[in-house]
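worker-3 :: picked CRDL1 protein
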Amino acid sequence: EDVPSQTFDNKDYFCGKETFPVYESIFTEEGETIRKIAIEIEKPPQIEIHVWTIRKGILRHFYVEKLSKREFEELPYFKLITRTTLGQWKIFSEGEAQITQMCESRVCRTELEDLVKVLYLEKSEKGHC
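worker-3 :: tokens ->
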């Protein structure tokens, strides 16, 4: 018997879970680094951008903004860094909330880097899922 081929509407899947594109933008001005991590969500179709302002390794300011896909496409400097699942994004968001409180008074370079690594999915090996 032929096994019917699965079509996923040109979306990437990881262990059967839909993945979403994640973008990053980093720029420095007047001694501050502004790092933005964005995810493209389909329902509702929007881009969620997490903005970190870092001065001398200390997270000075953090906020989240939501844009339409069209508004996001007009922004410069964003590059696609990975695709992630909504589950990993939730872990990222929860970790971000903890780090924001923790890093108000001390340097947190490695914590922020480690948090972004959560979004990268391990390549699935056969039987891994």
